[in-house]
């Protein structure tokens, strides 16, 4: 089986939650997965030993986390030698009218880093009103006004992630890696003919 690294940076935790779900979905296919917050990687960290890498980042004030950008830039050569994927988490991805804006964030990130992942996913994020301070709560309500509907309590947390889309992305990435590396997932090896 193959060894996948799922690395990410997160603001309030939704990107971490999505990274865990991606790793679990790929793991169900019999692959080994490791999940790592890019901010927690040891100084001696390398991509050596991984067959594929998935990088995730969230958008805050129109930008991805610097740590993810630095990780990709510093490891661009190693990433170019293996199957890779990138996923972005943003409120723009949850709003049909702002999908073009979300795609623009991805394009900017890829241009800045010079990286060309094999697969790209974009997922809606979450509003974590329970952890925001007063000013951030007001700001986020204003930013997300198009997503907030009257039947939702704007003081509670609201999740906009389409988990079926996350699972489909993870399965697509795993299938791509299996095809590229010539690996048959355990779940297919065990199935009756």
TrEMBL record:
It comes from the Archaea. Residues 4-168 form the Flavodoxin-like domain. One of its GO terms (biological process) is heme biosynthetic process. GO terms for molecular function: FMN binding; menaquinone-dependent protoporphyrinogen oxidase activity. InterPro entries: Flavodoxin/NO_synth (IPR008254), Flavodoxin_dom (IPR026816), Flavoprotein-like_sf (IPR029039), Protoporphyrinogen_IX_DH (IPR052200). This is Protoporphyrinogen oxidase. It comes from Halogeometricum pallidum JCM 14848.
